[in-house]
TrEMBL record:
Keywords: ATP-binding, Kinase, Magnesium, Metal-binding, Nucleotide-binding, Pyruvate, Transferase. It is an enzyme of class 2 (transferase). GO terms for molecular function: pyruvate, phosphate dikinase activity. This is Pyruvate, phosphate dikinase. InterPro entries: ATP_grasp_subdomain_1, PEP-util_enz_mobile_dom, PEP_util_AS, PEP_util_C, Phosphohistidine_dom_sf, PPDK_AMP/ATP-bd, Pyruvate_phosphate_dikinase, Pyrv/PenolPyrv_kinase-like_dom. Its cofactor is Mg(2+). The lineage of its organism: Bacteria, Bacillati, Actinomycetota, Actinomycetes, Kitasatosporales. Signal peptide: none annotated. Residues 551-903 form the PEP-utilising enzyme C-terminal domain. It comes from the Bacteria. It comes from Streptomyces griseorubens. Its EC number is 2.7.9.1.
C-alpha cells in the first residue's frame, strides 16, 4: 500500500466524503504517524508483529482537521465508526455497553508527536447503571465493577463535560476519610457504589444534565472531546514549548478495555527498554497492582520498580521482557511501553520511541552503534545540539558543605537552585519577576505545565520515572526529582516538612539534583560539567578516570566532524576567548568586534578623537590608538595561527563611547551653579548633543563612520596589516580577513576598499611581506541582500549579520521589543519561537538565500558565512547548511553545539536527497 497514494490521504481535488477516516489496528503501520498519530501507528505496528494488543480502531488526524476547520465532524465519520464498532463487537463476542456482558472501550488521543498528558483520555466507556451490574457478574467482582464505573464518571465528567476535577477528588478523599483508609484500593464495593451516586450528583449539579447512560453517546462525546483537546490551552502551550506545529490535529484510538484493577493478579505499568535517565541497559519502569493506567502516570499511588513484577507474576514478567527485546530490536531505539495485566494475561497498550535525558541520548546512540543496530549517520539523528548544551551546564559541587533533607527518584538530570513555590501560578509570577524557582507538588498534572516551564526544576513527593512530572521534565530538559516520599508537601499551607521537622516555607531556597535525586536546603555551589572539561582539554576520553558520558560525547562529536560540510568559527574579540574557542573546536574567528577593544583605558582616546576640532588633533588620537590596536591583532593572530580571523571594523554609534547625556548634563549644571571651571565638560556635552540620535542603530555607525571620520578605518586596516606582517615575519601563519559593517550599497564598499588596498600595499612595501588580506562585508541590511550581486563585485566574502538583519527586516529594536511584547506574541502563537533565537526562514531566511545566490552568480568563489548568534542555534544551522553557506560563527560556548548540528544537517540532508 503506497503511503503517498493511499485513499486515506486527501489528495488535491478529492472530496472529504471519499477519504477514509477510520482504520482498524490491523490496517496501519508505524510509518503512518501523520495519519494515525504516534499511538495509533504503533498499536498497528505491534498488532502486525503479533504482539498481544487489545482489538480496536483509529480515527485519523484528517477527521480531526476537518472537525477543527468546520466545527463539525465529517459526514461519513459516524457510519465508519459504526462499521468498525460492529466489527469489534463481533470479534469480542459482546456489544458496547450491553447489560449482561458489556464491551467497554477506551477513547484516547494520539498525535503524531508525543504530548504526554496534554490531551484527553477516557477509560471504561460503555458502563451505565445497568451494565455495571453485568460487568460485576461476569467478573465475579462487585468492587471492580463499581471502581471502574466511578473512574468513568470521574474522567468523563472532567474531560468531556468540563466539571472541575477537584470536586471528584474531594469526594474521593471524603470517602476514604469516612472509611479511615489512605488509598482508594481499600474502599469496598459498597463505598464505591455510594461514590458513584455522589459523582453522578456532581455531574447533574455542575452540568444541569444526567451522566449519559447510552454507551454510544458516551463514545461519540468522548471522541469529540479528544478532538477539542487538541486546541486546549495546555496542549497549545506544550506545542509552543516543544515547537510542534499547530495544524497537525490528533488521531483518536478506540480500544477494547482490558483491566488492571481486577485484583492482585492484575495491574498496570510502564516500562523502558533502557533507563531513560542514564541510558544504561537493564529493567526499568514502574508497576502498580490492582490499578488502571492513569494511576501510574498520575503518580497518585506510589508504584513498585518493574523488577518486582518477576516475584509478583513471573510468567507475565518473562513475556514482557521478551516483548521489550523484540520492540527495541524492531524500532532500533529506546522504547517506552505501557502494558496491563488482566488476571495473569499480558496486554500491550502502547509503545513509542521513549523520551530520554540528554546524557541518555548520547549513551544510547553509541550503544546502538556498538550493537550494530544503527550506523554512525543514524546515531547523529538520535542526539541534538540542545541536548549537548544541557550536558555543558554546571553540576553541584559534591565536596561542598551541604544539608541534604531528602532523596527521591532521579527523573531528569541537572543542578537546579531556586525559591520554593507550591503552585503553577506563583511559579510563573515569580519567574517573570526575575526569580529562580523550584516548583514543589505532591504530583504534577497537565494543568501544572505553565509552572513547570517557568521553574528551574520540579520536585514531587509522589510518582516515579514514568509519572507525568518525570516524562514532561525529560522532554523539556528540565531538572526533576520525583517520589521523594519522606518530604511532606502541603500545597494549601504552602510549605514542605522535611525529616527532623524542619519546615521549608514558600520563598526558601532549595537545591535539587536531578542526577542523584538528592534534595538540599539552601543554595549548593556548582562546578563545571565534565563535558565542558572534556572540551577544555582537562578530561581525556579513554583515560582511567574518564566519564562514561564524556566518551559518548567524544564519539558523537567525532561522527559529526567527519560528516559535516559547514565549518564552525567563533565570535571572539581577544586572545583568551580565541584560545578557548580553539579548544572547543573552532576553525577560525568569524567575527572579531573591534569596538570591544576601545573600552576601558582607551575610552579617553576615543573621546579625544570624537572631540577633535582640527586634523592635527584627530591624527594625534589615531596615532595613539594605532599601536594599541596592532597589539590586539598580534595576540589574536598568535592565538589563531593558521586559521582565518575575520575582523569587523568599528561598528556602533560613536555616542556609545561618550558619557551618558543625562549624567553629563547634571555635572555641567552643578559646575555652573557652583561657578566651577567646566570648559571640558561643556565641550563634551556639546559633542554628545551633536551626536545624539533618536534611532542610533539606524544612524551614524558602521561603514558610515569610516566615510565620515577620516582616518578611522584606515588606522584599523593599518593595525591589522602591520600585525599580520609582524606575525608572518615571525614565521607565523596569520590569515586576516577585513570585514566592512553595515554596507547598503556597493559604492560604500568600493570607497572603503580602495583606501584599504592602498594601506595594505604600503605595509607590504615597508615590511617586505606579501599580505593576502581578504576584504568583504556584512550583509545585515535588506538593501544589501537585495543588491548582493552588485556588492559581490567588491567583496571577497559575505558574512550575514543575522542579528541586525532580523531587526531591520522586522522593524524591531531588539532591546525594546523582547521585553515589551514578545511574550504576548509567543503566547498568541504569532511566533513559535523568537526570531532572534531561531532564524525566520520565511522572511530573513529568504533574503539570506537571495543574497547567497546573487553573490555567487557574480563571484563563484565568494565565501559565505554567518556571524549572528543564529550561527549557534541548532535549527538555524540546518538552514544555513541547506542554503549552502561555508561556515557559521558563534560564541565559544556554542561551538560544540554548532559542530554537532552541522554534522546532523549533513546527514539529514543526505538522507532527504536519497529519499
Amino acid at each position: 500500500m503506497s503511503e503517498n497514494k493511499d485513499p486515506h490521504v486527501a489528495q488535491s481535488g478529492t472530496s472529504v466524503e471519499s477519504v477514509k477516516f477510520v482504520y482498524d489496528f490491523t490496517e496501519g503501520n508505524k510509518d503512518l504517524k501523520d495519519l494515525l498519530g504516534g499511538k495509533g501507528a504503533n498499536l498497528a505496528e505491534m498488532t502486525n508483529l503479533g504482539l498481544p494488543v487489545p482489538p480496536g480502531f483509529t480515527i485519523t488526524t484528517e477527521a480531526c482537521k476537518v472537525y477543527l476547520d468546520s466545527g463539525e465532524e465529517p459526514a461519513a465519520l459516524r457510519d465508519e465508526v459504526s462499521a468498525h464498532l460492529e466489527a469489534l463487537e463481533q470479534r469480542m463476542g459482546k456489544k458496547l455497553g450491553q447489560a449482561d456482558d458489556p464491551l467497554l472501550v477506551s477513547v484516547r488521543s494520539g498525535a503524531k508527536f508525543s504530548m504526554p498528558g496534554m490531551m484527553d483520555t477516557v477509560l471504561n466507556i460503555g458502563l451505565s447503571d445497568k451494565s455495571v451490574q453485568g460487568l460485576a457478574k461476569q467478573a465475579g467482582d462487585d468492587r471492580f465493577a463499581w471502581d471502574s464505573y466511578r473512574r468513568l464518571i470521574q474522567m468523563f465528567g472532567k474531560t468531556v463535560l468540563g466539571v472541575d476535577g477537584e470536586l471528584f477528588e474531594d469526594a474521593l478523599e471524603a470517602a476514604k476519610a469516612a472509611k479511615k483508609v489512605t488509598v482508594d484500593t481499600e474502599l469496598e464495593a459498597a463505598d464505591l457504589k455510594k461514590l458513584v451516586t455522589k459523582f453522578k450528583k456532581i455531574v447533574k449539579t455542575e452540568c444541569g444534565r444526567d451522566f449519559p447512560q447510552d454507551p454510544r453517546d458516551q463514545m461519540d462525546l468522548a471522541i469529540k472531546a479528544v478532538f477539542d483537546s487538541w486546541n486546549g490551552e495546555r496542549a497549545k502551550l506544550y506545542r509552543r514549548q516543544e515547537r510542534i506545529p499547530h495544524d497537525l490535529g490528533t488521531a483518536v484510538n478506540v480500544c477494547s478495555m482490558v483491566f488492571g484493577n481486577l485484583g492482585p493478579d492484575s495491574g498496570t505499568g510502564v516500562a523502558f527498554t533502557r533507563d531513560p535517565a542514564s541510558g544504561h541497559q537493564g529493567v526499568y519502569g514502574d508497576y502498580l497492582q490492582n490499578a488502571q493506567g492513569e494511576d501510574v502516570v498520575a503518580g497518585i499511588r506510589n508504584t513498585v520498580p518493574l523488577a518486582e513484577l518477576e516475584q509478583i507474576d513471573k510468567k507475565s514478567y518473562d513475556q514482557l521482557m521478551q516483548i521489550m527485546e523484540t520492540l527495541e530490536n524492531h524500532y532500533k531505539d529506546l522504547c517506552d511501553i505501557e502494558f496491563t495485566i488482566e488476571r495473569g494475561r499480558l496486554w500491550m497498550l502502547q509503545t513509542r520511541v521513549g523520551k530520554r535525558t540528554a546524557g541518555a541520548a548520547f549513551r544510547i546512540a553509541t550503544q546502538l552503534v556498538d550493537q550494530g543496530l544503527i550506523d554512525e549517520a543514524e546515531a547523529l539523528t538520535r542526539v541534538n545540539g540542545a541536548q549537548l548544551a544541557q550536558l555543558m551546564f554546571p553540576r553541584f559541587d559534591e565536596s561542598a558543605k551541604v544539608e541534604q533533607v531528602g532523596r527521591g527518584i532521579a527523573a531528569s538530570p541537572g543542578a537546579a537552585v531556586g525559591k520554593a513555590v507550591f503552585d503553577s501560578y506563583t511559579a510563573v509570577k515569580w519567574s517573570r519577576s526575575g526569580e529562580k524557582v523550584i516548583l514543589i507538588r505532591r504530583e504534577t498534572n497537565p494543568d501544572d505545565l505553565d509552572g513547570m516551564i517557568a521553574a528551574e526544576g520540579i520536585l514531587t513527593s509522589r510518582g516515579g520515572k514514568t509519572s507525568h512530572a518525570a516524562v514532561v521534565a525529560r522532554g523539556m530538559g528540565k531538572t526533576c526529582v520525583c517520589g521523594a516520599e519522606e518530604l511532606e508537601v502541603d500545597t494549601k499551607r504552602r510549605r514542605m516538612t522535611v525529616p527532623g521537622g524542619h519546615v521549608v516555607e514558600e520563598g526558601d531556597l532549595i537545591s535539587i539534583d536531578g542526577s542523584s535525586g538528592k534534595v538540599y536546603l539552601g543554595e549548593v555551589p556548582v562546578v563545571p560539567s565534565p563535558v565542558v572539561e572534556y572540551f577544555e582539554g582537562r578530561m581525556h576520553p579513554g583515560a582511567d578516570d574518564a566519564d562514561e558520558l564524556v566518551e559518548a560525547v567524544h564519539r558523537m562529536m567525532a561522527f559529526a566532524d567527519r560528516k559535516r560540510r559547514l565549518r564552525v568559527r567563533a565570535n571572539a574579540d581577544n586572545a583568551e576567548d580565541a584560545l578557548r574557542a580553539r579548544r572547543f573546536g573552532a576553525q577560525g574567528i568569524g567575527l572579531c568586534r573591534t569596538e570591544h577593544m576601545f573600552l576601558g583605558d582607551r575610552r579617553e582616546l576615543v573621546e579625544r578623537l570624537i572631540l577633535a576640532d582640527t586634523e592635527e588633533e584627530r591624527e594625534e588620537s589615531l596615532k595613539a590608538l594605532l599601536p594599541l590596536q596592532k597589539k590586539d591583532f598580534v595576540e589574536l593572530f598568535e592565538a589563531m595561527d593558521g586559521l582565518p580571523v575575520t575582523i569587523r571594523l568599528l561598528d556602533p554609534p560613536l555616542h556609545e563611547f561618550l558619557p551618558d547625556i543625562t549624567e553629563l548634563s547634571v555635572r555641567v549644571a552643578l559646575a555652573e551653579s557652583r561657578q566651577e571651571p567646566h570648559e571640558n565638560e561643556l565641550r563634551l556635552l556639546q559633542a554628545v548633543h551633536r551626536l545624539h540620535e533618536q534611532n542610533p542603530m539606524l544612524g551614524l555607525r558602521g561603514v558610515r563612520l569610516g566615510l565620515v571620520i577620516p582616518g578611522l578605518f584606515t588606522m584599523q586596516v593599518r593595525a591589522i596589516a602591520e600585525a599580520a606582517a609582524e606575525r608572518r615575519n615571525a614565521k607565523g601563519d596569520p590569515r586576516a580577513e577585513i570585514m566592512i559593517p553595515l554596507v547598503g550599497t556597493v559604492q560604500e564598499l568600493e570607497i572603503v576598499r580602495e583606501e584599504a588596498d592602498k594601506v595594505v600595499a604600503e605595509v607590504e612595501e615597508t615590511t617586505g611581506t606579501s599580505l593576502k588580506l581578504a576584504i568583504g562585508t556584512m550583509i545585515e541590511l535588506p538593501r544589501a541582500a537585495l543588491t548582493a550581486g552588485q556588492i559581490a563585485e567588491a567583496a571577497e566574502f559575505f558574512s550575514f549579520g543575522t542579528n541586525d538583519l532580523t531587526q531591520t527586516v522586522w522593524g524591531f529594536s531588539r532591546d525594546d521589543v523582547e521585553a515589551s511584547f514578545f511574550t504576548a506574541y509567543l503566547e498568541k502563537g504569532i511566533f513559535g519561537v523568537s526570531p532572534f533565537e531561531t532564524i525566520d526562514k520565511d522572511g530573513v531566511g529568504s533574503l539570506v538565500k537571495l543574497a547567497a545566490k546573487a553573490g555567487r552568480e557574480t563571484r563563484p568563489d565568494l565565501k559565505l558565512g554567518v556571524c549572528g548568534e543564529h550561527g549557534g542555534d541548532p535549527e538555524s544551522v540546518h538552514f544555513f547548511h541547506e542554503v549552502g553557506l561555508d561556515y557559521v560563527s558563534c560564541s565559544p560556548f556554542r561551538i560544540p553545539v554548532a559542530r554537532l548540528e552541522a554534522g546532523r544537517a549533513a546527514v539529514t540532508s543526505a538522507g532527504s536527497d536519497h529519499r
